[in-house]
Specification:
Elements lengths: L2 H38 L4 H31 L5
Helix pairs in contact: 1-2
């Protein structure tokens, strides 16, 4: 096996793994802040919930785009 192919696989694994870890940490921090904010001001809960779900979708979209790019690099390797 060519070492370059191994490095591409390693890079793809790092892109997917670090992207997943970052998305999980970001969503966890955002969820905890949402609970704090809704406990302090319960009348804003619906507005904050809408914004939180929108941001969760954007954070997950960035992770899925990173996964797609990593899989694209593994299947379309120009170094073969």
């Amino acid at each position: 096996m060519d070492p370059v192919v191994g490095f591409v696989a390693l890079a793809a694994g790092l892109i997917i793994g670090l992207g997943a870890a970052g998305a999980c940490i970001g969503i966890g921090i955002m969820g905890s802040r949402f609970l704090e904010a809704s406990a302090r001001q319960p009348e804003l809960m619906n507005t904050l919930q809408t914004k939180m779900f929108l941001l969760v979708g954007l954070i997950d979209a960035s992770f899925i785009i990173g996964t797609g790019i990593a899989l694209w690099y593994t299947t379309a390797n120009p170094f073969k």
